[in-house]
Amino acid sequence: MGFVNLLTMAKRFSGIIAILLLLRLTTAAASHEFCDAGMGYNVVGCGGSDSSSRRILIKGGTVVNAHHQEVADVYIDDGIIADVKPNIKVGDEVAVIDATGKFVMPGGIDPHTHLEMEFMGTDSTETIDDFFSGQAAALAGGTTMHIDFVMPVNGSLSLGFKAYVEKAKKSCMDYGFHMTITKWDDTVAREMEIMVKEKGINSFKFFLAYKGIVMINDELLLEGLKKCKSLGALAMVHAENGDAVFEGQKRMIELGITGPEGHALSRPPLLEAEATARAIRLAGFINTPLYIVHVMSIDAMEEIAKARKLGQRVVGEPVVSGLVLNDSGLWDPDFNIAAKFVMSPPIRAPGHGRALQAAVSMGVLQLVGTDHCTFNSTQKAFGIDDFRKIPNGVNGIEERMHLVWDTMVASGKISVTDYVRITSTECARIFNIYPKKGAILPGSDADIIILNPNSSFQISSNSHHSRSDTNVYEGWIGKGKVEITIVGGRIVWENNELKVNLGSGKYIKMPPFNYLFDGIEKADVSYISSLRAPVNRFKAMQ
Ligand code: URP
Ligand code: ZN
Ligand code: ZN
Predict the structure, then answer these.
(1) I need a labelling partner for 532 at 20 to 30 A (CA). Which of 105, 106, 280, 458 fits?
(2) pLDDT over 90 for what percent of the chain?
(3) CB 300: neighbour CB atoms within 10 A?
(4) Cβ distance 135 to 144 under 8 Å?
């Protein structure tokens, strides 16, 4: 019996016990489905059991945290880091990994992914990587947790959450959720509260673009910002002026520009800067922290820099495509090549990426994501005659850790401690799960990578682990290779081989009121006391 049939059957049962029993069965059925599908991964749980050691000693590596690095051993017991110090002694039953000359770092946390997401139309434009293939790819590239964006179902947050809980049952690493807000009414406001207080969501995303699909207006953004503030949840924005983008798209079509280059030309950096500035000002007006996702241009970055200089709590997230690529691919004469680079905001002209890298290195932008949102070439071909129909999104969940190392650490732009900060620790702090995640400290989850700085990596759609048939980083060869990935105390990536455990990933609840909210109420008090109003006026004598 297939996975889907079992789920349909499960829905017919009302008793909780029956459903729980069926869920156990469906997990088993699903793992066989994956094995039978010959996905190319060694899926632990395909009829076999997880026999790997629960105790591991990583010996002699340079252990790197965001605040400090030292040569030390790391002892892992039952999925948790038990000790970090030089010369730890253990018995014969412990598996030992020699990490001499290598960096032992917290696994990457990707703050921005879209797995199994329906987007820009019908079912057929659901992203090609689901919670299994996307996470398997992540693990092969040294990322051990990600935060995915839940899309509401017909505007309902609870239905959206339920659907994503289902999708995520295939997980092989830990994950969290952001929630997207696409409409506003009392029900949405109430559901936001439930998401924060009961479901472990502490961030809500608002699209200022994709007119007619998920775009919201300023009135809704203001309501959302107020609600986020009261819940201690972080407001996130996709910052492009959607009305102006719509106009830009019409202009391109009128000029006869229908190919992928029209995508970039229709939504220039100034539209990203305008929406970034607007969102920052509105968040400043409400006095609540703001997170700008996928900062792609110098123009948007400078708006963030300006606000931060004035003391506003704004976080800027560049994505790896924006850091290391430029827009030349969109002009490629081969549609399949050009279309794979279509994402929003667009990958920009040469110069933007380097400036964004500098902003990351100076702390103007705080953490690096991917916006992993993969469509294969058949799906991209929906827009063969009209760039507006090309599903937006590129890959990156497997490549981010390598590309950031190669372009920023190997080139000397940032330190190894900064690397850990921008790929892992800062994300854990912002989404309030530090030091469970994002650190190599006693008590932290044993999500660890071992990177060899003297080894090299190569990117190709022939060898990557995403289900996509294309890769925007095709042919990239760079320095620094993630040789081992450990997730929850299990080695899942070693000798270029994945041994993933289907269904083993856990949902990580993220509490509200992260550090960005500290002292917010004091600014409100001083604002109120600065008003010198209402003025007590004498009534004029009649
Ligand atoms: O093109 C993109 N970025 N696709 C994913 C959805 C989004 O805007 O984040
Ligand atoms: Zn976006
Ligand atoms: Zn995105």
Answers:
(1) 280
(2) 88
(3) 32
(4) no
**Closest-lying ligand 1 atom to the alpha carbon of residue 210:** 8
Q: Which residue has the higher pLDDT, 159 or 29?
A: 159
- Alpha helical stretches, state H, 3-148: 3-12, 16-36, 133-140
Ligand number nearest CA of 237 is 2
Pocket of ligand 1 contains residue 472 by CB under 6 Å: no
Strands (E), 273-405: 290-292, 314-316
Q: Are 292 and 276 in contact (CB under 8 A)?
A: yes
In a domain? residue 22: no
Whether the CB of 114 sits within 6 Å of ligand 1: yes
∠ Cα 161 113 495 (to 5°): 120
Kindly state whether residue 100 falls inside one of the protein's structural domains.
no
Range of the domain at 199: 105-520
The residue contributing the CA closest to ligand 1 atom 7 is 344
Separation between Cα atoms, residue 165 and residue 170, nearest integer Å: 10
CA of 442 to the centre of ligand 1 (A): 37
Q: What tens digit of pLDDT does each residue of 463-502 get?
A: 999 999 999 999 999 999 999 999 999 999 999 999 999 9
Q: Which one, of 81, 86, 78, 83, lies nearest residue 61 by Cα?
A: 86
Q: Establish whether residue 392 lines the binding site of ligand 1, counting it when its CB lies within 6 angstroms of any ligand atom.
A: yes
pLDDT tens-digit profile of 273-282?
Answer: 999 999 999 9
Instruction: Give domain status of residue 331, yes or no.
Output: yes
Interval 129-149: pLDDT, tens: 999 999 999 999 999 999 999
How far, in Å, CA of 282 to CA of 284, rounded? 5
Average pLDDT for residues 515-535, to the nearest whole number? 97
pLDDT exceeds cutoff 90 at 64: yes
Segment 78-104 mean pLDDT = 98
Looking at the CA of residue 209, tell me the nearest atom of ligand 1. Answer: 8
| CB-based contact 263:342 (threshold 8 Å) | yes
C-beta 144 within 6 A of ligand 1: no
Structural domain total, the chain: 1
For ligand 3, the distance from its centroid to the CA atom of residue 275, given in whole angstroms, is: 16
Write the CATH number for 481.
3.20.20.140
For the Cβ of 390 lying below 6 angstroms from any atom of ligand 1, the answer is no
